[in-house]
Amino acid sequence: xxxxxxxxxxxxxxxxxxxxxxxxxxxxxxxxxxxxxxxxxxxxxxxxxxxxxxxxxxxxxxxxxxxxxxxxxxxxxxxxxxxxxxxxxxxxxxxxxxxxxxxxxxxxxxxxxxxxxxxxxxxxxxxxxxxxxxxxxxxxxxxxxxxxxxxxxxxxxxxxxxxxxxxxxxxxxxxxxxxxxxxxxxxxxxxxxxxxxxxxxxxxxxxxxxxxxxxxxxxxxxxxxxxxxxxxxxxxxxxxxxxxxxxxxxxx
Length: 252
Ligand SMILES: Nc1ncnc2c1ncn2[C@@H]1O[C@H](COP(=O)(O)OP(=O)(O)OP(=O)(O)O)[C@@H](O)[C@H]1O
Hints:
The chain is α/β, with parallel strands linked by helices. It folds into two domains: 1-86 and 170-252, P-loop containing nucleotide triphosphate hydrolases (Rossmann fold, 3-Layer(aba) Sandwich); 94-163, no CATH class. Helix content is 38%, strand content 25%. The strands form two sheets. A six-stranded mixed beta sheet has the order 6-7-8-3-9-10, with helices on both faces. A four-stranded antiparallel beta sheet has the order 2-1-4-5, with helices on one face. The protein binds adenosine-5'-triphosphate.
């Protein structure tokens, strides 16, 4: 039962406004250890703001965010940076450095954050991660030589290189063709199995949601309107806004 499992994230009564723009009005959300939780919502609904609040890039007006039981508001910058290392953020645009090879892109966070690694240890880790994303032959390539789907995979590998316990995927399938989308969805599920991560997947893509999510949470007008399995939230939806989100977005 989910309710008996350990919570890695616990958000209560979260409120965030920018002037008169009341983005998050009263958000409660739990992420359980080992689950993939999908956060859905239309453009501008506050999904990125929620993630930025979680990693301390923005400060909430009210409410609390506990990550691994730690209240993020109580942390100083040094403690926050330490906590951030336990959270991997896979950006929408992959965010690879164009002037670096795949190897250098992967090494970068490792060398920056883990002291005294030997060349052999770095090589081992880079090769392990390229193997995990099924792209071992790209090691000496430049990002400009990779397809959109390959860039996403390398971006995910780079995020995983610091062994995060929580993965945040921001629109992992945006801009990809349907077959590549399915490959990325499979990779998200493989990452969970292999690295025992707990993940939040932010998406508009209902196919991605269905394939990767144990639970869905639909953000509408500053609240989570529905939280549950795909079937509970969408196929049995009674709420008008949730139903219309489903009707407009689902690719049949
Ligand atoms: N730093 C900021 N200052 C002012 N307003 C902001 C800031 N960050 C976000 N917003 C506003 O908060 C709202 C939610 O933005 P957010 O980026 O979270 O949407 P989103 O759900 O992630 O959208 P998308 O799916 O298009 O990425 C928007 O109205 C946006 O203009």
